[in-house]
Fold each of these.
Amino acid sequence: MKVCPTRLHNTNILNDTLKSVDYCDANHEYCSYITELMNKYFEEKEINISENFINRYLQIVCNNILCWSLNYDKHLKNCEYIIKNINFDKINTLKKIENNPEIYELYIKYEKNISIEFITNITNISNNQDVFIKFLKNYIENIIKSDIGLDVLFNFIITKQYINALDFLLDSKIKIPNSDIFNKIIVKLVVFQNDFDVILKKCITNGANIEKNTLKNVFNEIQKSQYIHSYNCINIFKITSFLFDNGSTDISWFDLSNLKDKILFSELSKIINHFVDNGYNLTQDEFKNICEFGIKINNFNKINKFCSIEEIKNIIYINKINYPIKFTFNIDILRSECKKNNNLPNIKNILKTIAPDTECLENTCINSNPAIVKIIHENYNIKFTDKCILNCAENFRYNRLFDYVLKLYKDKNGLNPNNNEDDNPDNIMIEIDNGEDADDD
């Protein structure tokens, strides 16, 4: 039975002639035959070698399945001769040599015809940044002259996070092809590069422009990215402030607030405060939304004009933002405070000037705080409503029987308009445990 050569994995065996001879327990005759034939081609300077044979030989050598007692250095010389002198489909060959960095380097050393297809194939198989940088060094002059495949190269480097390769391209004065590439580089720097300013400055030197909408586009990229989370945005404040300070001012608070799930609350606060301190003018709607986030604008002079608006004052009070303003309590503030838990002192203080209404009692029942419920119900003679009962019940850790009763109550009083068959209380099975001796009675 014909046996194929065994793949070798142990590099120590490859470097030890005796061990490698012993290890070749497959078809040694096949190893000898194909090697001797290739040696013959090499020694006789033969160039009429069939492409099929070349591909078979390269595939065997590069996958470490040839008998390595037959002189690895000789194989490298053979491969160098093939790549340097013989005309065959070298791009297709890339797929066969990807497992052998030495032969890969030989390939890029002698291949002079650069094209989009060639660059695409190189990037498709490259998993080693150091080897890829050697490829760049070999072709950098052609790349500079032709600008071929710059989008492919930059997108590959950005995707692979090859920061050293990016550095090499920038140091080689390769122009940033377009604003989309520049934005992607910035987004990667948000996460992976501590000395981001060095890379950004190199990008600008190489033709990248910080435009008015750059920051907005970067925010959009961050929002779409599945790899960016609040714990890895190490440069978000530094980069946003750098871009804003260098002219990317076409931005709004709402663009920034869309990143609330991507960056830390503290970073969100630092960024908007930096914008405001450096010339950004907040609108009334933006400041209202900022207050709803619970963020304080440190430069009070910038937002003082909004603090006389009653609605905004209510939001500031509710979110406990420490601004030097006097509050006049109203029913909206009281209703909001009644929703909160363990809030008796604040509510007592507000009740000195504002009388509660039915909604206040209903909100108080959400947390079922007995002291507050009693004060509003008894001291102000406000009656309980169906909503009071529902608020108490729905925030109680009820059992299945209570769930059953609550659903019946809602249906009877028309309080469950979206009821469907699955929610129908008649479909809920109630198991009643009568005890082990129930039948004895």
Note: Confidence is low (pLDDT under 50) at residues 1-9, 17-23, 421-441.
Amino acid sequence: MISDLNDLAALLEEEITVGEELRRNLTCQRQALVDWDMDALIAGIEAREICVRSLGELEQRRLEMLKQEGVTNTSIKLKLLISQSPEGLPGRQRLQSVRTRALETFSRLQADERSVNGLMKDLLAQLREALTPLARPTVSLYGDKGGAACQRPASAFIHNKA
């Protein structure tokens, strides 16, 4: 299997760091949604894309590292890789610790993503519901012959009525 697990552990620690940055980013996006700060939301989304790209690059490096070590099954589980490594192999304990941190970080990241996506869906549904009356005319806009029918009544706010 892998001759030195320290290199793999170091690479996984970089992935965890990016995962933690993604969690902080989601927290900022959630706050931007709550504050209705679209500039901050767009900045957060752009920063997220950079992190996701970085995470993809790290994954490619990890796959290349495994390939160089002769691991052909790219879907091998880290737990299996650790269990198949000899007890005294450098980095085995570190890799076990990294595995635990990675599971925690990326499980929380997935939960946070679901939470932010749910918040966005709820806000979208509320906006649609609030805007629906504005999209539906209260009277017919066109008469039988295609000409403009009677005009819509002026808004009560124009006449200082609530």
Note: The chain has one domain: 5-135.
Amino acid sequence: MAEALTINGVSLASYAFMTSDISGLMTVPERRGENVVVPQRHGRIRQLGKRFDANEIVLPLWIVGADPDTGALPTLPEELDIFFERRDQLLKLLYADPLLLQYTRPNGHTVQAYGEVVDVLDFTRRHAEPLAQVSVAIEITNAFWEDADSVSQEITGPTETTVELTEFAGATAPMSDLVITVFGPCNNPMFTHGPQWVRFNGVIDAGRQLQIDIGRWLVGPGTGSPWLPSVGQVEQGRPGPWLELDPSVQPFEITFTHTTGGSATATISGRRKYLSP
């Protein structure tokens, strides 16, 4: 399968719209935050926990007044308006809200990102030829590319059970838009990944669920029997999201601790994230 790039489902590899160079897609987001300079001290104090900033990619595009499928060019003067139709179609596409970019790798794996146009360089067109070139800068607002679908890692066992995060293998960026679901009975569940941990101080009875939505800072009863868990019962080990899966942490695994006295089950669900498509 060939590489493919689309915006809101429209290919940028047709005869009408095409990218002449997709190397701009490979741009990786920068770290946000600066280290601290202290007078009378050598070097700098490193600021820990730097986050990734929004990422900007630049796409050079050709717009051709041609049939997208056959590449047939207009032959009559009155047909030259096809170029302007193609230009207007591309502009409407680029300024759509939301703007969804999807990139399919040669192995068929598709990743996606949402963005918005932040800059358009001048159109270059010679005389009345039915083609023009323009470069478009798009900001990837959430910093990372991601899979279209979520994966789910199950953890079952007594306290201190550690599992390898095989379902999230292949990710290259931190993942904090996660949902943890704990199935009762379970007491005081805690999840540890590298230096990070999150704990719920409370009892989840049989037939109930505890759902910790890390991306939205919410807790709820999931799809089990109704009850009212509270955000005040959640503790975390470091500032930032309650928990984040970081593929740079090795071994890439998570530990499930609880005081149930037997076996308990939980799942961690979310989308794999990527620094570059």
Note: The longest helix spans residues 81-94.
Amino acid sequence: MVITGEKTWITNGSVADLAVVWARTDDGIRGFLVPKGTPGFSASETPRKAFDARVGDVQPFLRGLPRAESAMLPEAKGLKSPLACLTQARYGIGWGVIGAAMDCYETARSYSVLRKQFDERPIASHQLVQEKLAGMITEITQGAAAGAAHRKVEG
């Protein structure tokens, strides 16, 4: 038996030495470990994303990839395993955004303390700037609290 198919992209696929491939078998959906360079497995680079140029996405192609029993993930049966992985990845993505927002806030706050205007007072001393910074940190805190509450409910 062999695996044939393709996927739109695999994030970080250009730097990965190993892929996890999910395929339909006689026993249902199963996961397989596929090392880079395995005959029948190839990938082409996709255009870089404007929002995250660090990620090296590839479009994988599976053409007659041998489906070795030794490469099968023994406990991964059905869609439960890959979907559980995606659920965990969503938390990482969500918390990454909170971290990026905190960095933006800290950059804006630091700048407002250092930037002088008019009578050489820092712009952080202006009420409108303080209101903007307070609004930023409030939104970030609410996002973090909502994420933590959601995690507690699901956890």
Note: The domain at 80-154 is CATH 1.20.140.10 (Butyryl-CoA Dehydrogenase, subunit A; domain 3).
